[in-house]
Each structure stands twice: as structure tokens, then as C-alpha cells.
Amino acid sequence: MPTEPSDNLRKIIHIDMDAFFASVEQRDNPALRGKPIAVGGSSARGVVAAASYEAREFGVRSAMPSVTARRRCPELIFVKHRFEVYREVSRQIHGIFARYTDLIEPLSLDEAYLDVTADKRGVGSATGIAQRIRHEIRRETGLTASAGVSYNKFLAKIASDQNKPDGICVVRPDQGADFVAALPARRFYGVGPKTAAKMARLGIHTGLELRERDLDFLRQHFGKSAEYLYRASRGVDHRPVKPDRIRKSIGAERTYGEDLLEDAALYQALEVIADTVWERIDKNGARGRTVTLKVKYSDFRQITRAHSLVDPVRDRAHLGELGRELLAALLPVPLGVRLLGLTLSNLLDSASADEPAAAVAEPAPAQGRFDF
């Protein structure tokens, strides 16, 4: 039987901006509205940082190589990114959040968790707060946001994607177990294509089928993820919203079907990875001082090389330069390389650089009537 929610419930909202980077570009350039656009480079080594909903209809997605995106959508319009503009709009949106709660956990420039249990403005409804926030975002920025409202972070995040774009989904405490039961297993946060395929082989296609497996079975097949899957399949997630959440590192890696042997091929592969890493860095509004290169050879031997700086990495070109320097020290590679990875760590979050991180506060119990 699914675990019942606690009486002392949190009221959590997950706000996710709709196609954020692309929507900002369409807002600022009316000629782009209603057209398939991709934010990112259009070169052979370029990567899509964001795609408009018009482009997504053709299968264009973020982190996709630009050549693939162009092949899927020949009419695709590439737009150069303007991360300073995106960061400024993000600050504006977070200012709206702060009107309703002090418990804000940013996940990136375009999404965040809000704990509105204390009901700072006395609205009386978590759904009402989410609707007000969405309305104020539209009025003040000209952009749309989707929201998920529930009693924990897991459900709120899944719910925010349920009625995108420009939608809201509310999962009340008495609905959590049934909502999760009907979900495709691949919708669970952290379940990627490989794990989803493994679940399918085990006969697990839905949240209900996942819930029917006991903890020993999940540990046997999913290791460290077992406890999370066990709780999530029952609609349980006790994680608090943490205003001081800071990522320890941001990176990307890629495994190749054929080992890379030539220096030129290795440098080109590294540039593609660096594009992905920098897009993730900018999306999170973070900067860091340590660049680490990860290399796995054809014999599965793995090494890492790192370079730390006094000041944060300046920009994408600087990241690429440091990555190339680390790679150059390992060349030539007679064994061939099957995996490359690049990571930026020793991060300094842009928000925490200006002011001390806020203390994590437990939400106050709901007083009187407070509806979802």
C-alpha cells in the first residue's frame, strides 16, 4: 500500500519557464515569433542551447548538434545566445518569487522550487499563489511559465511539465499515489533512456508496476537508486526546499562508438563537449575556477587532468583553451580514446557571490485553512 502523506504537509511549487532562451529571443525580435528557432551556433561543431516550441515539433532539442537540428528542420533559424539578457530576465523572475516566499531553490536560470507553506502574502491557496506568479511573470516580462503544485518536490517538478506550455497542474495530497501510478516509468526524475530500457525488460512500464516491486528487488536491479525509486513510486519525497543550493560541478562527457586516434578528431570532439558544458554553466548562472579533463582509453584505463585558476573561467573561449591545454599534454594517444569528459568545478554561484547564502529554514506548519 502507498504511504500516506504526513499531516504537516509542505506546499511546494515548481516554476519552469517555457522554452526560456528561445522565448526571450522571440519576445525581443517580433520577426522570430511563430517560427522555428534555435539558440546556439550553426557551425558544424555547434550545439543547440534551446529550441522554440515551433522547432520542437520537428524534434529539435537542447544539447543536440546543430547539424542534426538543421537536418530535422531545414527552415530552422539559428540565433546567437545572449546570456547576459537571460540572466537579467531570470533575476526579474526571481524577484517575483520573493514576493511570495523566502524559500526559493533555483535549479537554473529558468526553473526553481518554491516552498509557500508559510503563505507570506496570506493568499490562502498554493494554487492561487502559483497562478499569481504566472500572471505577474507574463505581465512584467512578456513570457510564459508553467507550474506544478504539490506536497513535495518530486511531484511538483513532474506536474510542471504536465500541461506545458503556459499551463498548471496541481497534485493534491490525496491524489499523489494515483498520479504517480499512472506515470510512465521514464517520466521519473533521474530515469534516463538506459534505465527506462532496463525497466521495460523487467516488465516495469508505469509507476504502479514500479510500486509493486519490493525494496530488495529494486536494490538488486537498481543499486543506489532503489530507495529513491521505492519512495517516489509511492509519491513520497521528504527533501526540503534549500535556498542555498549550490552545485559542486558542471560537466559533460561522451562515449564514442569508434575510438578516437587522431589529434584533430580529439580536439574537435572536445570542442563539442565544451559547447555543451558552457551552455549548462550559463543556464545555471555559475562560474568556476577548476577545469578537469577526463579521458578513458580503449583498454578502459581512465585518467583525469585538472587546472585550477585564481579567478573564474572567463568565457566559452577560455574554457576551450584550458581544455585543449590539458588534452595537448596527453597527446599522442596510441591506444585510442573511447570517452572524453570536461568538467568545471570549484564553482562560485552568481547569487552567492554577492551575498551570504540564506539559511535553510523548515517551513512553518499551515495555520487554519490552506488549500492546495
TrEMBL record:
<dbReference type="InterPro" id="IPR053848">
    <property type="entry name" value="IMS_HHH_1"/>
</dbReference>
<dbReference type="GO" id="GO:0003887">
    <property type="term" value="F:DNA-directed DNA polymerase activity"/>
</dbReference>
<dbReference type="Pfam" id="PF21999">
    <property type="entry name" value="IMS_HHH_1"/>
</dbReference>
<feature type="binding site">
    <location>
        <position position="16"/>
    </location>
    <ligand>
        <name>Mg(2+)</name>
    </ligand>
</feature>
<keyword id="KW-0234">DNA repair</keyword>
<keyword id="KW-0515">Mutator protein</keyword>
<feature type="binding site">
    <location>
        <position position="110"/>
    </location>
    <ligand>
        <name>Mg(2+)</name>
    </ligand>
</feature>
<feature type="site" description="Substrate discrimination">
    <location>
        <position position="21"/>
    </location>
</feature>
<dbReference type="Pfam" id="PF00817">
    <property type="entry name" value="IMS"/>
</dbReference>
<dbReference type="Pfam" id="PF11799">
    <property type="entry name" value="IMS_C"/>
</dbReference>
<keyword id="KW-0227">DNA damage</keyword>
<dbReference type="InterPro" id="IPR036775">
    <property type="entry name" value="DNA_pol_Y-fam_lit_finger_sf"/>
</dbReference>
<dbReference type="GO" id="GO:0006261">
    <property type="term" value="P:DNA-templated DNA replication"/>
</dbReference>
<dbReference type="GO" id="GO:0006281">
    <property type="term" value="P:DNA repair"/>
</dbReference>
<protein>
    <recommendedName>
        <fullName>DNA polymerase IV</fullName>
        <ecNumber>2.7.7.7</ecNumber>
    </recommendedName>
</protein>
<feature type="domain" description="UmuC">
    <location>
        <begin position="12"/>
        <end position="192"/>
    </location>
</feature>
<dbReference type="GO" id="GO:0005829">
    <property type="term" value="C:cytosol"/>
</dbReference>
<comment type="function">
    <text>Poorly processive, error-prone DNA polymerase involved in untargeted mutagenesis. Copies undamaged DNA at stalled replication forks, which arise in vivo from mismatched or misaligned primer ends. These misaligned primers can be extended by PolIV. Exhibits no 3'-5' exonuclease (proofreading) activity. May be involved in translesional synthesis, in conjunction with the beta clamp from PolIII.</text>
</comment>
<keyword id="KW-0479">Metal-binding</keyword>
<dbReference type="GO" id="GO:0003684">
    <property type="term" value="F:damaged DNA binding"/>
</dbReference>
<keyword id="KW-0548">Nucleotidyltransferase</keyword>
<keyword id="KW-0235">DNA replication</keyword>
<dbReference type="InterPro" id="IPR043128">
    <property type="entry name" value="Rev_trsase/Diguanyl_cyclase"/>
</dbReference>
<dbReference type="GO" id="GO:0009432">
    <property type="term" value="P:SOS response"/>
</dbReference>
<dbReference type="InterPro" id="IPR001126">
    <property type="entry name" value="UmuC"/>
</dbReference>
<comment type="subunit">
    <text>Monomer.</text>
</comment>
<dbReference type="InterPro" id="IPR050116">
    <property type="entry name" value="DNA_polymerase-Y"/>
</dbReference>
<dbReference type="InterPro" id="IPR017961">
    <property type="entry name" value="DNA_pol_Y-fam_little_finger"/>
</dbReference>
<dbReference type="InterPro" id="IPR043502">
    <property type="entry name" value="DNA/RNA_pol_sf"/>
</dbReference>
<keyword id="KW-0963">Cytoplasm</keyword>
<dbReference type="GO" id="GO:0042276">
    <property type="term" value="P:error-prone translesion synthesis"/>
</dbReference>
<comment type="similarity">
    <text>Belongs to the DNA polymerase type-Y family.</text>
</comment>
<keyword id="KW-0808">Transferase</keyword>
<dbReference type="GO" id="GO:0000287">
    <property type="term" value="F:magnesium ion binding"/>
</dbReference>
<keyword id="KW-0460">Magnesium</keyword>
<feature type="active site">
    <location>
        <position position="111"/>
    </location>
</feature>
<keyword id="KW-0239">DNA-directed DNA polymerase</keyword>
<keyword id="KW-0238">DNA-binding</keyword>
<dbReference type="InterPro" id="IPR022880">
    <property type="entry name" value="DNApol_IV"/>
</dbReference>
